[in-house]
Amino acid sequence: MKPKNGGAASERRLLSRRILLLCFASFFLGMLITDRFGSVPGPVVVQHRLHDREELQSVSEKFVARPKPAEDRDIMGEVSKTHEAIQYLEKSIDTLQMELAAKRSSNELHGESAGGISTQRKRAFVVIGINTAFSSRKRRDSVRETWMPQGEKLKKLEEEKGIIIRFTIGHSATSNNVLDKAIDAEDEIHHDFLRLDHVEGYHKLSAKTKIFFSTAVALWDADFYVKVDDDVHLNIGMLIATLGRHKLKPRVYIGCMKSGPVLADKNAKYHEPEFWKFGEDGNKYFRHATGQIYAISKDLATYISINQPILHKYANEDVSLGAWFIGLDVEHIDDRDMCCGTPPDCEWKAQAGSVCVASFDWKCSGVCNPVERLKYVHSRCSEGQDAIWSASF
Fold it and tell me: In this protein, which residues make up the domain named DUF4094 (predicted)?
């Protein structure tokens, strides 16, 4: 019995030693692994490293995105050059569009000549159309004796200055009418008419205005087109100087802008049959140039020429013209020198060094009694005979 108990105790001591050796071996093995592969970072160390990496990336991005001062100047220079190039291209495109529209207008109005080649339009600075009627022979003579050059001077003005001046008139309702023959005979003497494909009539002025601009655009490639009544005194030199100030602007509409009441009363002189289109009673028209004289640039005249079949005509010609430009990108230029009064108004302004472009009496919608008074107005308010030749544009 005794030996048996001694053997069991010996086995227990041996097992304890083996366990102790296994623990030491595990400890040393752990130390070996730690030395070879580095320490395992704790959560605080990881957080700091991520923060440092984000700062480095942010600084790098800022450095790349931020141009140097020299680069700033280079970029601004390129932007300026690009802007100038865009402006030049826009102007070129506008010019090409106007030339294309004018050519199309010319072909539509007069067709093409033999061989399919359209007639070449004459270059001009301005075409001035003097609105007149069959019964206005004496008015025309008064204009010829005052502010409108005649004969060789008229031709010289056209050739040297590019200023075209014509009385504009249509035809009577019947062919070979005595009225038409009288105009033909008058034109044989003065050669200063522009005949329109239009039946004359006071209540057809809106239609006549459309046809005048369309015909003028088909015949002359001008910078401006002007309509003036035959009972208005005009200083051509001042008109040319005024237009010259706006030559580089696209789509300009120049005149004395007004906004009169819409008259629903049928007995009123300027009754508007379509008054209901302008809203409630007492409303006013949109801004438009008074009908005695106004000027429009080439592209607006071409627009009228191309679209004349669908442009609506109101009872009053000046309202119609203003309506055609509603919705377009048009610059309205209100020039009060184009609607001076007759003496003493225009005389005082001339003495003060501000010669008027045009003069008339508002109460008469023109110079009152123009046959008798136009010479008087001319003597008091004229710019002088040489002004037209020295005018620059």
Answer: 17-106
**What is the pLDDT confidence band of residue 245, given thresholds at 50, 70 and 90?**
very high
pLDDT of residue 63: 42
pLDDT of res. 120: 85
Per-residue HEC secondary structure of the chain comes to CHHHHHHHHHHHHHHHHHHHHHHHHHHHHHHHHHHHHCCCCCHHHHHHHHHHHHHHHHHHHHHHHCCCHHHHHHHHHHHHHHHHHHHHHHHHHHHHHHHHHHHHHHHHHHCCCHHHCCCCCEEEEEEEEEECCCCCHHHHHHHHCCCCCCCHHHHHHHHHHCEEEEEEEEECCCCCCHHHHHHHHHHHHHCCEEEEEEECCHHHHHHHHHHHHHHHHHHEEEEEEEEEECCCEECHHHHHHHHHCCCCCCCEEEEEEECCECCCCCCCCCCCCCHHHHCCCCCECCCEEEEEEEEEEHHHHHHHHHHHHHCCCCCCHHHHHHHHCCCCCCEEEECHHHCECCCCHHHHHHHCCCCCCEECEHHHCECCCHHHHHHHHHHHHCCCCCHHHHCCC
Contact 124, 162 (CB under 8 A): yes
Burial per residue of 13-24, b for 16 or more beta-carbon CB atoms within 10 angstroms, e otherwise: eeeeeeeeeeee
Indicate whether 9 pLDDT > 60: no
**Residue 368: what are its φ and ψ, rounded to 5°?**
-65, 135
Task: List pLDDT tens digits, range 115-146.
Answer: 343 468 999 999 999 999 999 999 999 999 99
Q: Which two tokens stand for residue 240?
A: 């040319």
Average pLDDT of every residue of the chain:
82
What is the mean predicted confidence (pLDDT) over 203-219? Answer: 94
CB 240 within 8 A of CB 338: no
